[in-house]
Amino acid sequence: MEGDNCSFPADLSDDHSQRGSVASSATLSRAQDVLVYLFGESAVHLSMEGLGSVSVQELGRSVREALQIPESAPDTFAFWLCSPLLELQLKARHQPYKLCRQWQDLLYRFTDASEDDISQADEPYLQYRRNVFYPKSKELQIKDETVLRLLYEEARSNILSGRYPCDPEHWAGLGALSLALEEGPGLDSQQITTKIREKKLPSFVPAHVAVGSGGFFSTLRGKSSRQAELEQKLSEEYGKISKSTGGSPEPQQLLHQYLSMCHTLPYYGCAFFCGEIDKPVQGILQRGRRKAVSVGICLDGVYVMDVKEKHVLLGLRFSELSWDHSRPEEEGDSHILWLEFDGEEDGTPVNKLLKIYSKQAELMSGFIEFCVELMSTSEEPARQEAGTRNGRGGRRGMLQRQGSVVCSRVHSLNTISYVDNGKEIKRLKPKRAASFFTRQATAPTYSAVNTESLEQG
């Protein structure tokens, strides 16, 4: 699934815009310098001979040796090729230099970037980061501090950038743990405030939280008042750490605590894709408008997140959904990932379809299929049995919705609703010319949604 079949969009920041990891010289037989970037703004500097034919597997041995990562943890991390427009996890057999030469082709195929943006795109850089297929359950068994630090830095980056939406109790607790890891757990309240102000709030809480909504009441209260509130939250959570750990915890204990808290976020460890969904129609003038979303996919399920509001719009485990991918049939059409799940209309149980427009729809569909296959062959027979029982052949559990940013907001989605009466599938709202369509023959468990007659809906 990685590499030739799967790619993930990067945050379009300027942080890495001038990075380049792989030599562009055609003379690659002699030793060449290679930079492998890590989260936390650090990098491993290697000198490799025959760079044009060096595989990820060979590179991995060199990086693990340089970082002193134990051989018992070879699957925890993977190599990614990244640029401001695209992220791609590589397989062990891939040769990074050769993939760099194909980078523009990949950008044309899997992004909506203009020709000018693609022609000016930076050379991708190599990054050593978490393997998207590494189970969360194994992380807490890790004892090596170097490995835990690498996982921590990546998780922290995703929290602060807003890629992992979280509630106040989460970001305050995580921010306090970061402070304890950097400065130790023995600071008094005045020292805490001083350290936070030295390093700035965005070093401890998500950027959108530190900045605030910018609304009218926020302006009235003033920036200093908001900053004081956030500092107070961090100080309170920091105090709890000292009490719960007995004063002087080991770094490994704090790192495990941080990762454990991140594991409560269902999209921790996801691969992320970019796309758009239809906005709910609120009037004639607002028809056809779309909302930018981030789609996270991991071994547990699929999560559709609002890029602007930093909260989950829809979260589904694989046992709760069916899916399909459709390609453009005419110029101007979009690639679409279809997600089908259970819902309710005026008290009536219905099936709902969500359309996600993205040039990466094919990748997302393939990624879901691969995760389902991995899950079905894993050492968790209970989950496999649940998937078989609750797949396309039976009604899946209804989704629970509440105020947390990690919970689904199905009511805010513009979906297609329909019911299955055993003979035909009838669409409910809104009405359209073709009032029903037949369902394709299905496999006993996971299967694709028949979307051919819906694409004009």
TrEMBL record:
<dbReference type="GO" id="GO:0005886">
    <property type="term" value="C:plasma membrane"/>
</dbReference>
<dbReference type="GO" id="GO:0090090">
    <property type="term" value="P:negative regulation of canonical Wnt signaling pathway"/>
</dbReference>
<dbReference type="InterPro" id="IPR035963">
    <property type="entry name" value="FERM_2"/>
</dbReference>
<dbReference type="InterPro" id="IPR019748">
    <property type="entry name" value="FERM_central"/>
</dbReference>
<dbReference type="InterPro" id="IPR057096">
    <property type="entry name" value="KRIT1_FRMD8_FERM_C"/>
</dbReference>
<dbReference type="InterPro" id="IPR011993">
    <property type="entry name" value="PH-like_dom_sf"/>
</dbReference>
<dbReference type="Pfam" id="PF00373">
    <property type="entry name" value="FERM_M"/>
</dbReference>
<feature type="domain" description="FERM">
    <location>
        <begin position="32"/>
        <end position="382"/>
    </location>
</feature>
<dbReference type="InterPro" id="IPR051594">
    <property type="entry name" value="KRIT1/FRMD8"/>
</dbReference>
<protein>
    <recommendedName>
        <fullName>FERM domain-containing protein 8</fullName>
    </recommendedName>
</protein>
<dbReference type="InterPro" id="IPR019749">
    <property type="entry name" value="Band_41_domain"/>
</dbReference>
<dbReference type="InterPro" id="IPR000299">
    <property type="entry name" value="FERM_domain"/>
</dbReference>
<dbReference type="Pfam" id="PF24522">
    <property type="entry name" value="KRIT1_FRMD8_FERM_C"/>
</dbReference>
<dbReference type="InterPro" id="IPR014352">
    <property type="entry name" value="FERM/acyl-CoA-bd_prot_sf"/>
</dbReference>
